[in-house]
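FORM 12-B: Structure-to-Sequence Request
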């Protein structure tokens, strides 16, 4: 089925997103919004304005505050997309998350060369005890008939209706459509989703929706019964999500846990806070990037969060990661993070760290062969010698200038002389492997 490129989503909040993006870019360029406000206030004070005069504005009820609510909701949308993007670190199926492109965010999976998409709408409410009802999610009424064009159009333009359009436009490549929220959906909403999937219901208003489903989601193009059945089963709900909120506190905790789960990277508290802000800012920038006139490849980069973006946020060299990955390291992200952090602490430059990653790969390759060439006892004695030297180097402060001496001492040891292939680069790679191994114990 031909996929139609849909840049805009046609939602009522589009104007606010435009304003958000404009203001966000201005703020990121100046980085002085609050300071500027303080200067203005200070100026007024020096000019003789008294506190009473300045407080008049607060005595009047504001006519317009919806913008604040809308901006808060966009922040939660960015948090939800950033959290979804972290699964890219696992190196499994998910390889890209598109931000405010076709929908609030879209998760791309690639399995055996086949690509599919999971579309998300993020819908939030201000109070935790509020719930979404059938009228809000589906524009369905429990009484009366679904028998006019206006009623069908209302369902088509509902939260769920807009998501169902993806099932037509993307066909089999639409894996799933989801409404994600910070609050719960009431039981009737869950009932509609369940009955849609089953294709039958004991409730009249849901039966009417099932009967009119094709007219709702594809009024101009006829669908086969197989297409209709497949589309009905793709809707899911993700209620009461705890990793989005008005502040970054909950997101920071969830992001930390997700980074560990997908990559086992250890983070310090100050790093967690920085990463949380950087991840949300990354999604915000991807959501606001102009895409008019761009090629498909450039749109992919402008709107999508990929592995390289996440490595950049995590301060991990893409080159180091790729070297370790291509060398067969199953935990390449974790190894790259440990190696880069430890060698930076020792004073190594970026080029030296890249050389270290290549040396580690050479060592790993040699080890896989040597294990089958030398007696286990002899080989394990060598590994123990390297581990002891590495431990001594680390306990001595892990100074880069001392590393060469430790490497040479290892080469000069009686056990090393039993392995003719060992040289400085290979033993340096062994030290790098030992650093990573010790950090993961």
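FORM 12-B RESPONSE
SEQUENCE OUT:
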């Amino acid at each position: 089925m031909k996929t139609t490129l849909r840049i805009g989503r046609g939602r009522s909040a589009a104007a606010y997103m435009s304003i958000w993006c404009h203001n966000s870019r201005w703020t990121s360029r100046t980085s002085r919004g609050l300071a500027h406000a303080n200067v203005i206030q200070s100026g007024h004070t020096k000019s003789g304005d008294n506190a009473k005069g300045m407080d008049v504005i607060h005595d009047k009820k504001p006519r317009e505050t919806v913008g604040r609510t809308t901006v808060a909701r966009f922040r939660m949308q960015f948090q939800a997309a950033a959290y979804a993007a972290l699964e890219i670190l696992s190196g499994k199926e998910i390889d890209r998350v598109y931000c405010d492109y076709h929908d609030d965010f879209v998760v791309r999976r690639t399995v055996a060369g086949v690509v599919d998409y999971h579309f998300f709408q993020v819908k939030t409410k201000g109070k935790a005890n509020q719930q979404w009802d059938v009228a809000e999610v589906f524009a369905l009424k429990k009484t009366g008939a679904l028998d006019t064009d206006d009623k069908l159009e209302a369902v088509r333009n509902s939260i769920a209706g807009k998501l169902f359009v993806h099932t037509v436009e993307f066909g089999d490549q639409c894996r799933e459509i989801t409404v994600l929220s910070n609050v719960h959906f009431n039981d009737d909403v869950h009932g509609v989703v369940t009955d849609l999937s089953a294709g039958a219901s004991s409730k009249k208003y849901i039966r009417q929706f099932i009967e009119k489903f094709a007219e709702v989601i594809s009024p101009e193009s006829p669908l086969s019964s197989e297409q209709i059945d497949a589309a009905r089963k793709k809707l899911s709900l993700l209620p009461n999500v705890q990793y989005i909120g008005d502040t970054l506190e909950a997101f920071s905790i969830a992001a930390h846990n997700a980074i560990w789960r997908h990559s086992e990277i250890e983070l310090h508290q100050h790093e967690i806070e920085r990463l949380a802000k950087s991840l949300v800012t990354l999604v915000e920038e991807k959501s606001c990037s102009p895409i008019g006139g761009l090629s498909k490849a450039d749109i992919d980069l402008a709107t999508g969060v990929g592995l390289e973006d996440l490595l950049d946020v995590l301060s991990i060299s893409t080159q180091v990661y790729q070297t370790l990955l291509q060398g067969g390291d199953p935990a390449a992200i974790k190894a790259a993070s440990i190696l880069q952090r430890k060698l930076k602490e020792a004073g190594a430059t970026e080029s030296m760290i890249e050389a270290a990653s290549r040396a580690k790969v050479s060592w790993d390759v040699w080890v896989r062969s040597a294990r089958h060439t030398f007696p286990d006892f002899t080989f394990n004695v060598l590994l123990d010698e390297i581990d002891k030297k590495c431990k001594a180097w680390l306990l001595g402060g892990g100074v880069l200038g001392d590393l060469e001496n430790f490497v040479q001492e290892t080469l000069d040891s009686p056990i090393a002389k039993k392995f003719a292939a060992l040289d400085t680069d290979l033993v340096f790679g062994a030290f790098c492997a030992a650093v990573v191994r010790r950090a993961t114990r």
